[in-house]
Amino acid sequence: MSIQIKQISKQFGDFQALKPLNLTINEGELVGLLGPSGSGKTTLLRIIAGLETADQGQILFSGKDVTQLHVRDRKVGFVFQHYALFRHMTVAENVAFGLDVLPKQQRPSKASIKQQVAELLDKVQLSHLASRYPAQLSGGQKQRIALARALAMQPRMLLLDEPFGALDAKVRKELRRWLRNLHDELGFTSVFVTHDQEEALEVSDRVVVMSQGQIEQEATPQDLYQQPASRFVYDFLGGVNVFEGEVCSTAGHSNNRLQQGKAWVAFPDGHKPQAGQLYLRSHELSLSNQPSATAHLPLTIKAVSLIGAEVRVELEPLDWQSPDLWEVVISHSHYNNWQPQRGDTCFAQPQAGQLFTKNKENQPLALNWTKEHLLIKTA
Ligand SMILES: Nc1ncnc2c1ncn2[C@@H]1O[C@H](COP(=O)(O)OP(=O)(O)OP(=O)(O)O)[C@@H](O)[C@H]1O
Prior knowledge:
about 375 residues; alpha+beta; Rossmann fold; CATH 2.40.50.100; 7-stranded antiparallel β-sheet; 22 strands; elongated; binds adenosine-5'-triphosphate
């Protein structure tokens, strides 16, 4: 089932929670609504579900206008952050609940409900817990039961609002992989809300980034990461270091540099020098003991953390300014050879980045120094 959102807007009192927006979600797609708190994700999800009414606009399910259709007739399954299982019912009774309370004409027979519940518990891999009560389950198990309960109603689509928000990082990670597999197996359309960039990028076919009631960008995780459409998206995806500078006009210096005090980065060949903020991702930089021919960015090491497959180095600009500390990710082998210590000075060398100039806030200039490095190395 596809979902088409046409010019939907919503106001709460004086506050415009959603500005008129359009979005199409294709049949079978898993779409992540990503954005900071208050950006309107839940409001949009609730409008799709029929739990909230829009002030204007239309919602179509597979081309059929459902804008005025009551929530119970939309055949939508929900899972919320807080499990909302009935405490006094066993796991099996919780999953069966929606079927048990159907009007008599629509209600399956007792034997059929029992079989459906068994199949659903099998699907969420919790058959062995059928007779337990919610209080005897972990958070992750409760969420899987909540999902089984939503699936029992044979929804045409699944809407999930921060389904793993209350769980710890490891369980979250396991459950999002599990959700992705389940979605692929069942093949229906799913929309989930999250404010966790990693979660959205890992699970979704397509990510819709929201800010202040508007869609900032919709793209595949890969495109979103590689081509953020605006400074907001870049910032929100996180892990960026910022170098703000002017085009150098000091006598005796090349005017091909973005400069701040004594720190500078040369523009790669073929690029017109422009003042602005250079955004550099933590893995698109290297560190060494010496400045290079294309960059002079001195930094003091503040902390080194060995986390999993990578080493994160936290750095403070030395005699220049940045809004936040810098973070550069290096490999364990680089770390072992180099052995950086707190308080050491080192130099950052950008490989690729985006320059946001003042007059083109939302169209960054992509810069790449990799060719320059090759030239220097072979020269
Ligand atoms: N029923 C309501 N009455 C008044 N204001 C509301 C209501 N529901 C939501 N809002 C406001 O609308 C804005 C968008 O809320 P919404 O819950 O959609 O954001 P969100 O992106 O899902 O945020 P979060 O990640 O914190 O859940 C918020 O500023 C919120 O305070």
